[in-house]
Amino acid sequence: MWLQIVMYISLTFIIVASFIKVRRIAGQPLHLRWELYPVAHEKGREYGGSYLEQLDWWTKPRRRSFFGMVKYIMREALWFEKCYRNNRRLWCFTFPFHIGLFLLLGWSFLLFVGAMAMIFGMTESTAWVMAINYLTLATGVAGFALSTIGSIGLLIRRSIDQNLKLYSSPTDYFNLIFILAIVLSGVCSWYFFDPGFAYAREFMKSLITFAPTATNPAMMIGILLLALFLVYMPFTHMMHGLTKYFTYHRVCWDDDPSLGDGNIQDKVVKLLNQPVTWSAPHIQHGKKWKEVVQGADE
Amino acid sequence: MKRRIDTREIGCNPNEQLLTIGVESLTPLPDGKGIDNSPVVKLLTTEQRNHYECSLDGIVTLRLLKPTTKEEESKLVQSFLDGLRKLLSEKDNWTFLQPLLLSLDYCAKCQTCSGACPIYLASGRQEIYRPTYRSEVLRQIKEKYLDKKGKVLSKLTGNLIELNWTTIARLAELSYRCTLCRRCAQICPVGIDNGLITREIRKLFSQEMGIAPKELHESGTVKQLKVGASTGLTPKALKDIIQFMEEEIEEKTGKKIRIPLDREGADILLIHNSGEFISWPENPEAFAIIFEAAGLSWTLSSDLGGYEATNYGAWYDDVQLARITYKQVEVARKLGVKKIVIGECGHAHKALTVTADRLLTREFNIPRESCMPLLEDIVFNKRNRVHLRRNDFLVTLHDPCNMVRLMGIVEPQRRILREISSRFREMEPHGVDNYCCGGGSGFSIMNSMNFPDWKMRVAGRTKVIQILETFKEVLDRSIKKYVCTPCSNCKGQMRDLFDHYELQERYNIFYTGLAELIVNTMTNE
Q1: Would B112 disulfide with which of A87, A198, A216, B278, CB 3.0-4.6 Å?
Q2: Exposure letters B491-510 (e unless 16+ CB within 10 A, then b)
């Protein structure tokens, strides 16, 4: 039962840590506009244009394309298009690595569905349960295979490519080795002990029902490593999957004009009432931003 | 073999130059002519080398004096750390904290961005010019000295950087080896912005330590706030130039135009980069001809802040940026205009329209727009007044980064050029993927010591290659060619590049603004 407790703790930890991280970033003050084109939600301007191309733009309705934005995000999330176009050699490994991890997330979800079916007394004699189990098998095998290939490839590239090596810290190698160790233990568990992922599904069931269950040694090591990784991850740049939302939606694509009223203006008014704290001679240290920018001749 | 310079080396061997760029490293020019065989940058004199900090790459933009005592050095290090602390604090750096922290904390170090940087590529992939190099230096200083990871953890994470005067001085200089074109950010899979980090480093030096290039600060923003323009143009001198412009318009076109100045209640306040009045008066003249022909209600201003669109604060200092913005808008308020239109100046477009948007409150938030849609409207919807005739001149378009990649104003200028010329051709890449002219972020006006050499040979090299490639089958001198450059700073850089690479003499290529090309196609009907 201790393995389940470890998993509960680490899952709780990463959920809480992610929540805190998101809240902290979201709570940072409104910054000056710093958009970068193309902005994906600009309707009909896929070439990278903006609403600022219109005469008297502030009198015109904004034309935003939700579909355009989703399309852009999907191309990036599922094909890693920027990397594909601009760094093909890296893409050959980062693509399988990330897709492998996404598949393993999907695999976990399918295990959850299979475990729920077991809890409700359904067996493989039910067609959809059998389908789910086969899908679980396919997703799991593909996920483990791709993430193994990807992490080994990335590790080798980081070790031999001078462009990457020079900027790689021991932590960067450690992170990749950590992930590789987790997926390899999963591979071992599947290959030597658990070809249909029955153990894994049982473990998922035990997590839902708070009941003990049998595991195999490889799976136990894998679960322990995963639990440790989930606690470690929030302290690393590997949270970029989450923070990417902010770099795009809150910086690169944040093109909302303030137009002298509304919510943005209220925030700006508040920020301009803060003191300027910088110390260079041309700055009037201690005065409010508003006083400094509206009054001084320096 | 090229030596790869590690980030930890930035603080080592203070008496040695970290990088010497050999001419053989530079990207070859497509015409293969021998003009580039001289040393990339002129060697500074012994006196200059002893006096100024030049240990980064032998180039001086900041004229930093070396500290003479240990105490002086400690004080500078402390001041730098104070600045860095402020840069990372909500209270002190609300203006850019969120984008900065996102870029500092989540870079995957995949180096995809390097292939997008025209300076890194043109220099022969010199390590210190890599977009991630200076960011990594700042990141490591932050982790080691502010996050207090301690020596053991720092070693474990591969962070061996030492913070001393040499690190600070080299980092300061290095922040002026990037044009802030943000091509690197555009292709980053995670959205990391090394251009922004560079600007924040510049800001730290300026706002905390009072260190900035003289051309941007003392002779730039400070002068603009005192005199009215960074060029030193005074209201009286402006009035003289306007009179001269009216005479020249009459002489060239036969049209008697009275250029409106300080006309209260006009619809439009047109603000040009004051450099146009001094170096290229044909540009504001062209605007006057077009606006008058179109029957617009408009005015120029001779008030302090009203005749200078530039805002060098955009490149190095938020406080100066905000001060200038307010001055400009105050003039528009006094005149009671309906909107401000910004002339052909890319960074002024960005600073006054976009960046200022979250600095100007309520009554100060007067509508501001680019001149491009207005010119487009005139060309397409008021042609019965301006009488345009399509010509067959050969022209390509340079996309100013600030106006295009950073604002999304891409098509209006193209539609105009396609309309007035039957032989418009694009550069590759173009639009939001364009290459910087190499004069961005203040470089076009920075001329300290041997910096102009670097600006021509390295920063502007990719643009020259692009121009030559665009016209490769028509390079013959008998064919006149234009590079439409709708930005004053880009134009300043083009002027120097054209001179350095002899593009006009050898290939009959000219640079020009957009308004001038429009006027050239106007008939006298």
Answers
A1: A87
A2: bbbbbbbbebbebeeebbbb
Instruction: Note the pLDDT of residue B234.
Output: 93
B408/A39 Cβ within 8 A: yes
The beta-carbon neighbor of B106 closest among A168, A237, A260 is A237
Contacts of A42 in chain B (CB under 8 A): 408
Residues near B223 by Cβ (< 8 Å), separated by ≥ 6? B229, B230, B232
Q: Which of B83, B109, B189 sits opposite A82 (nearest CB)?
A: B189
Q: Is the pLDDT of residue B1 over 60?
A: no
Q: Taking CB atoms and an 8 Å cutoff, what residues of chain A touch B355?
A: 32-34
In chain B, how many H helices and how many E strands?
24, 8
- B-contacting residues in A 161-190 (Cβ below 8 Å): 162-164, 166-172
Closest Cβ opposite residue A50 in set B108, B355, B409:
B409
Q: Does the distance separating the beta carbons of B186 and A168 come in below 8 Å?
A: no
For the entire predicted model, the pTM comes to: 0.96
Query: B388 in contact with A at a CB cutoff of 8 Å?
Result: no
pLDDT reading at B111 higher than 70: yes
d(Cα B183, Cα B116) in Å, to the nearest integer? 6
Q: Is A234 on the interface with B (CB under 8 A)?
A: no
Q: Is the dihedral of CA A42, A48, A54, A57 positive or negative?
A: positive
Contact state of A260 with B431 under an 8 Å Cβ cutoff: no
Is this complex's ipTM strictly greater than 0.90? yes
Tokens of B85: 């602390």
- What average pLDDT does the segment B444-470 reach? 97
pLDDT at A217 over 80: yes
Q: According to DSSP H, which parts of B88-164 are helical? A: 97-105, 118-122, 131-141, 150-156
Q: Kindly report the backbone phi and psi dihedral angles of residue B510, in degrees, each rounded to the nearest multiple of 5, phi listed first.
A: -120, 150
Average pLDDT, chain A: 94
What is the arithmetic mean of pLDDT over B131-139? 97
Work out the number of other CB atoms within 10 angstroms of the CB of residue B381: 11
For range B422-430, the mean pLDDT: 97
* A190 neighbors A140 (Cβ within 8 angstroms): yes
For residue B405, pLDDT beyond 90: yes
Q: Choosing among A179, A250, A276, A293, which should be mutated to test the B contact, i.e. which has the most B CBs within 10 A?
A: A293
Closest CA of chain B from A178, distance in Å: 15
Kindly indicate the confidence band of residue A298, based on its pLDDT and cuts at 50, 70 and 90: very low
Share of chain A above pLDDT 90, in %: 90
Query: In this predicted structure, what is the pLDDT of residue A259?
Result: 80
| Alpha-carbon distance B84 to nearest alpha carbon in chain A (angstroms) | 11
Given this model, what pLDDT does residue B69 score?
95
